[in-house]
Design brief:
By secondary structure, the protein is mainly α. It has helices spanning about 5-10, 15-35, 35-40, 45-50, 50-70, 85-105, 110-135, 135-160, 165-195, 215-235, 240-265, 270-295. It contains 12 helices and no strands. Helix 8 packs antiparallel against helix 9 and helix 10 runs antiparallel to helix 11. The chain is globular.
Length: about 300
Amino acid sequence: MHPTILATLLEGSSPVVAMCCAAIALFVIGILAAKNQIAEARGLDKIVALSNACFASPVAVFGALHLFGPQFVQNLVPAYMPWRMFWVYGVGVALIVTSLSIATRIGVRWSGLLFGIMMFLFVAMIHLPGALSEQDRLLWVIVFRESSFGGAAWILAATAVDGWHGKVKRTLLTVGRVTITLALIVFGIGHFLHPVVLPGVPLRKGMPTWVPGQALIGYVTGAALLVAAGSVLLKLKTRTVLTCVGGWLLFLVLVIYGPLLIGALADPDTTAKVVGINYFFDTLMFAGVILALASATPGTIPGTY
């Protein structure tokens, strides 16, 4: 990292430092935990092996934000909930513990289950009421995004080595597939309606002017997400398609969100830094969501089961 960016980052930005440190630490832990799986995987399945690391690292980032920058999230706690700061810090601790569990693949049976329950509670208590009352496109995107995060966590809980079995496993997998497929459809349509927004999760922020072919990238991403949803619904080459779409999002995270993150970290405003980090890791986590579904899907990639 350039010295001037590092100096700017360290100037009174404890939540930013904590979020960045958590991201790096958990991604490294996740890669180390998956090194054997990555080495043994063939072809595109090497991308699938990154699912836990891509999912765990953002969870750690958001946990660090709760613990070191509670002012950024405390207003999300419903007004009727007592002890607002208790819930902020409690969720932060839960997120850090969950990220460690998913990254190391230890105890994912419970961490994935509980994380999914928490995300669905957030949707029911915070995001869905807001979307219904305000009829804001952005709020509906968040509803489907958070639901897909919860669904992916349940898929990880069901498919872990120590995962659930029988009817519970089938239920977790079904809910996971449904929530992720709905997000793929909604986000795919969203990219056709708003092709120049940042690709992956179609929020409000547009692509920077230095990105060539902005509309083309939006349409390609939207088409890819809809094709992925169709492959899940029709059960046609699902694992291969999901892996390719997850890989496409990882590529976009590197070439578009990466430079945006660097620019945000160079901004003297802490809020701008936090927003830049959130955009980067929201998209990385959605890529992890798609790869988690791919990992739970028997497919046609050579060398897979």
